[in-house]
Recover the amino acids of this structure.
């Protein structure tokens, strides 16, 4: 998936008025995801997505995976994106949904293996029996 397609999918699905808003949602979500993953996994995941988006997953030598709960994860996204919590939850699920389509199932399994089962709803399309709000 190319950069413009990735951003366009997020913008369309989240019904955002601008590409800048979509990029802000992508940045907040992937930067927060990178906080939760081991550096090696962020590097592996980065290799499967456009470099302009992979930039938000860039491994930092000082970054140690944070043990964020799903609620804390959504809270950090809301803070970084500068939106309310319900918008952050929706945007995060959409960004992860587009990411899930852009990478191989094996790579997605690797990402999910580093997250507790509490994060499973993040990887499920909205409306699949799980509430968006945690």
């Amino acid at each position: 998936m190319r950069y413009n397609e990735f951003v366009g999918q997020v913008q369309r699905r989240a019904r955002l008025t601008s590409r800048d808003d979509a990029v802000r949602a992508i940045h907040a979500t992937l930067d927060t995801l990178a906080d939760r993953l081991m550096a090696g996994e962020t590097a592996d995941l980065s290799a499967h997505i456009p470099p302009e988006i992979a930039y938000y997953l860039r491994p930092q030598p000082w970054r140690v995976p944070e043990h964020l709960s799903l609620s804390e994860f959504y809270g950090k996204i809301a803070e970084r994106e500068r939106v309310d919590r319900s918008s952050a939850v929706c945007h995060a699920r959409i960004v992860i949904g587009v990411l899930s389509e852009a990478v191989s199932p094996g790579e997605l399994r690797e990402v999910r293996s580093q997250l507790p089962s509490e994060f499973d709803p993040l990887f499920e399309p909205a409306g699949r029996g799980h509430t968006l709000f945690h």
